[in-house]
Amino acid sequence: AVVAEEVRSLAQRTALSTQEIKSIIEGLQHGSRQAVEAMHASREGVERCVADSQEAVDMLRAVGEDIAHIDQLNGHIVTTTREQTSANLEIVERLQSVQSIAQNTADDVETLARSSERLPPIAVRLDALGRRFHP
After folding, report:
1. How many CA atoms lie within 13 A of 37 on its CB side?
2. Distance CA 115, CA 121 (A)
């Protein structure tokens, strides 16, 4: 009877221990499943982060290429502006030359006009002189 009582008590404690062990194992399994789900979610988050980072890198690369293209266009604009400035200076020089020539021509015309005014009296004198020699 004492031995049977102890066997029963031992069986009861074993059952309780087994139940506790089962609860602990179930808790560990539940925790493991949650850890696996968290790792999957974390991995998916990392994959999204990597994809987003790659997209950002691609966008930055495209922006860099656009900036390089704009820089190249600015270089062309600077070169064209310098050429236009040079051409404008040449035009100004030629216009100044034309203006100088026009001024000289106007001065020559004025001198010629003054000289022409003196011609009729000289012609009359020459005519008179010529008549003296050829009566």
Report:
1. 6
2. 11
